[in-house]
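C-alpha cells for chain A. Residues wanted.
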C-alpha cells in the first residue's frame, strides 16, 4: 500500500490558520495508517520508510520520536526537495509513505507510482507579496 500527503505551510480554513498541533495530529494519523498497512505489524515492531519534502522537517523532527516511543515502530526518514524526491521515486526508490507537494504527487499519480486517490492534503499555503 502506498500512501502520500502534501504539505507546504499552515492551512487556512474559514479565515483561520491551522495551528501546529493540527498539523501534528494529521501527520501522526497518516504515520499510524502507514504502520497498519505493513503485514505482521502486531507481531513485531516495524520500520516505516518515509520520503519527505523539506517543508515538514521541523514538524517531523518533533513528532517522530514521540510516535516511535508510543508505537515501538521505527521511522526511517529521508528529506529532500520535492523535485529530487520525484527523481528518486521515478528511478525506482520506494517508501511506505511519501510527503510531497501536490504537483509532485500528481506527477507520480500520472506515472502510476502512487495510486489514484492515495494522496491526502496535510496543509496548504499561499504566497503573498506586499510593496
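Reply:
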Amino acid at each position: 500500500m502506498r500512501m502520500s500527503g502534501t504539505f507546504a505551510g499552515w492551512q487556512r480554513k474559514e479565515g483561520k490558520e491551522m495551528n501546529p498541533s493540527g498539523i501534528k495530529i494529521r501527520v501522526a494519523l497518516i504515520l499510524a495508517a502507514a504502520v497498519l498497512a505493513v503485514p505482521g505489524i502486531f507481531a513485531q515492531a516495524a520500520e516505516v520508510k518515509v520520503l519527505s519534502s523539506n517543508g515538514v522537517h521541523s514538524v517531523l523532527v518533533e513528532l517522530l520520536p514521540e510516535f516511535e516511543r508510543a508505537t515501538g515502530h521505527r521511522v526511517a526518514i529521508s528529506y529532500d526537495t520535492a523535485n529530487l524526491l520525484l527523481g528518486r521515486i521515478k528511478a525506482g526508490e520506494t517508501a511506505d509513505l511519501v510527503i510531497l507537494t501536490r504537483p509532485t504527487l500528481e506527477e507520480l499519480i500520472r506515472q502510476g507510482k502512487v495510486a489514484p486517490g492515495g494522496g491526502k492534503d496535510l496543509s496548504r499555503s499561499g504566497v503573498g507579496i506586499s510593496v
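Confidence is low (pLDDT under 50) at residues 1-18. The chain has four helices and seven strands.
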